[in-house]
Amino acid sequence: MKIEIVEDLKEKMKMDNKYVKDVINSKIKLDKARAEKTIVVTPESFAKIFSPERMKLMLRIRHNNLSNIYQLAKALDRKYEAVYRDIKLLEGFGILKLKKKDNKTIPYIDGPLNLGELAAG
Protein backbone atom coordinates (compact mmCIF):
# COMPACT_ATOMS: atom_id res chain seq x y z
CA MET A 1 0.00 0.00 0.00
CA LYS A 2 1.19 3.48 -0.85
CA ILE A 3 0.29 6.72 0.93
CA GLU A 4 0.36 9.85 -1.21
CA ILE A 5 0.19 13.31 0.32
CA VAL A 6 -1.21 16.08 -1.88
CA GLU A 7 -2.09 19.72 -1.33
CA ASP A 8 -5.36 19.63 -3.27
CA LEU A 9 -7.54 16.50 -3.41
CA LYS A 10 -9.77 17.92 -6.18
CA GLU A 11 -6.78 18.54 -8.44
CA LYS A 12 -5.47 15.03 -7.74
CA MET A 13 -8.89 13.57 -8.61
CA LYS A 14 -8.92 15.49 -11.91
CA MET A 15 -5.46 14.15 -12.79
CA ASP A 16 -6.43 10.59 -11.87
CA ASN A 17 -9.68 10.79 -13.85
CA LYS A 18 -7.77 11.98 -16.92
CA TYR A 19 -5.28 9.13 -16.47
CA VAL A 20 -8.10 6.54 -16.25
CA LYS A 21 -9.83 7.96 -19.35
CA ASP A 22 -6.52 7.86 -21.26
CA VAL A 23 -5.98 4.22 -20.27
CA ILE A 24 -9.56 3.25 -21.19
CA ASN A 25 -9.24 5.01 -24.56
CA SER A 26 -5.87 3.29 -25.18
CA LYS A 27 -4.03 6.62 -25.35
CA ILE A 28 -1.55 5.35 -22.74
CA LYS A 29 -0.70 1.99 -21.19
CA LEU A 30 -1.62 1.11 -17.64
CA ASP A 31 1.27 1.80 -15.25
CA LYS A 32 1.25 -1.19 -12.88
CA ALA A 33 3.19 0.73 -10.22
CA ARG A 34 0.51 3.42 -10.31
CA ALA A 35 -2.20 0.76 -9.97
CA GLU A 36 -0.93 -0.15 -6.48
CA LYS A 37 -3.49 0.50 -3.74
CA THR A 38 -2.97 4.10 -2.66
CA ILE A 39 -4.41 6.26 0.09
CA VAL A 40 -4.42 9.90 -1.01
CA VAL A 41 -4.51 12.45 1.82
CA THR A 42 -3.85 16.10 2.51
CA PRO A 43 -1.21 17.03 5.10
CA GLU A 44 -4.03 17.86 7.54
CA SER A 45 -5.80 14.51 7.16
CA PHE A 46 -2.47 12.65 7.24
CA ALA A 47 -1.74 14.20 10.64
CA LYS A 48 -5.15 13.10 11.93
CA ILE A 49 -5.01 9.55 10.58
CA PHE A 50 -1.36 8.89 11.42
CA SER A 51 -1.15 10.33 14.92
CA PRO A 52 1.88 9.38 17.02
CA GLU A 53 -0.23 6.88 18.99
CA ARG A 54 -1.47 5.18 15.81
CA MET A 55 2.07 5.08 14.42
CA LYS A 56 3.26 3.36 17.62
CA LEU A 57 0.33 0.97 17.30
CA MET A 58 1.23 0.08 13.70
CA LEU A 59 4.90 -0.38 14.59
CA ARG A 60 3.99 -2.68 17.47
CA ILE A 61 1.67 -4.72 15.24
CA ARG A 62 4.31 -4.94 12.51
CA HIS A 63 7.23 -5.96 14.72
CA ASN A 64 5.69 -8.06 17.50
CA ASN A 65 3.72 -11.25 17.60
CA LEU A 66 0.90 -10.10 19.83
CA SER A 67 -1.97 -12.48 20.12
CA ASN A 68 -4.89 -10.04 20.46
CA ILE A 69 -6.01 -6.43 20.85
CA TYR A 70 -6.07 -6.64 24.66
CA GLN A 71 -2.43 -7.71 24.73
CA LEU A 72 -1.59 -4.90 22.29
CA ALA A 73 -3.34 -2.30 24.47
CA LYS A 74 -1.49 -3.57 27.52
CA ALA A 75 1.88 -3.47 25.72
CA LEU A 76 1.20 0.14 24.65
CA ASP A 77 -0.12 1.13 28.10
CA ARG A 78 -3.36 2.38 26.55
CA LYS A 79 -7.03 1.67 27.20
CA TYR A 80 -8.48 -1.23 25.22
CA GLU A 81 -11.32 0.93 23.86
CA ALA A 82 -8.91 3.55 22.47
CA VAL A 83 -6.71 0.91 20.82
CA TYR A 84 -9.78 -0.84 19.38
CA ARG A 85 -11.07 2.47 17.92
CA ASP A 86 -7.68 3.16 16.33
CA ILE A 87 -7.50 -0.36 14.90
CA LYS A 88 -10.99 -0.06 13.38
CA LEU A 89 -10.09 3.31 11.82
CA LEU A 90 -6.87 1.91 10.32
CA GLU A 91 -8.76 -1.18 9.14
CA GLY A 92 -11.30 1.10 7.45
CA PHE A 93 -8.50 2.69 5.43
CA GLY A 94 -7.15 -0.75 4.53
CA ILE A 95 -3.90 -0.14 6.40
CA LEU A 96 -4.30 -3.18 8.61
CA LYS A 97 -6.47 -6.25 8.73
CA LEU A 98 -8.13 -8.30 11.46
CA LYS A 99 -8.35 -12.05 11.73
CA LYS A 100 -10.31 -14.12 14.20
CA LYS A 101 -8.64 -17.03 15.94
CA ASP A 102 -9.92 -18.89 19.00
CA ASN A 103 -12.31 -16.08 20.03
CA LYS A 104 -9.50 -13.54 19.70
CA THR A 105 -9.22 -10.69 17.21
CA ILE A 106 -5.68 -10.32 15.93
CA PRO A 107 -4.61 -7.20 14.00
CA TYR A 108 -1.93 -7.54 11.34
CA ILE A 109 -0.40 -5.54 8.52
CA ASP A 110 -0.40 -7.41 5.23
CA GLY A 111 2.43 -6.19 3.04
CA PRO A 112 4.62 -3.11 3.10
CA LEU A 113 3.47 0.43 3.73
CA ASN A 114 5.17 3.04 1.54
CA LEU A 115 4.97 6.77 1.96
CA GLY A 116 4.75 7.79 -1.67
CA GLU A 117 6.38 10.77 -3.23
CA LEU A 118 5.03 14.03 -1.88
CA ALA A 119 2.93 15.45 -4.69
CA ALA A 120 2.33 19.12 -5.22
CA GLY A 121 -1.38 19.67 -5.73
| Average pLDDT over all residues | 85
The N- to C-terminal Cα distance equals 21 Å
Instruction: Tell me the CATH architecture of the largest domain.
Output: Orthogonal Bundle
Could you tell me the number of beta strands?
A: 5
CATH class of the largest domain: Mainly Alpha
Strand pairing plus helix content: what structural class?
alpha/beta
Question: Major β-sheet, in short?
Answer: 3 strands, parallel
One letter per element, helices H and strands E, the order comes to EHEHHHHEEE
- Overall shape: elongated
CATH topology value of the largest domain: Arc Repressor Mutant, subunit A
Strand order of the largest sheet: 2-1-5
Count of folded domains = 2
CATH superfamily of the largest domain: Winged helix-like DNA-binding domain superfamily/Winged helix DNA-binding domain
Low-confidence stretches: none
Question: How many individual helices?
Answer: 5
**How large a portion of the residues is in β-strands, by DSSP E?**
15-25%
Radius of gyration: 17 Å
Helix content: 40-55%
Q: Topology, pairings included?
A:
Blueprint: E1 2-5, H1 9-24, E2 38-41, H2 43-49, H3 52-63, H4 69-76, H5 80-92, E3 97-101, E4 104-108, E5 114-115
Parallel strand pairs: 1-2, 1-5
Antiparallel strand pairs: 3-4
Helix pairs in contact: 4-5
Question: How is this structure best described in words?
Answer:
The protein has 121 residues and is of the alpha/beta class. Helices cover 46% and strands 17% of the residues. The chain has five helices and five strands; from the N terminus they run βαβααααβββ. The strands form two sheets. The protein has a three-stranded parallel sheet. Strands 3-4 form a two-stranded antiparallel sheet. Helix 4 crosses helix 5 (80-92). The mean pLDDT is 85.
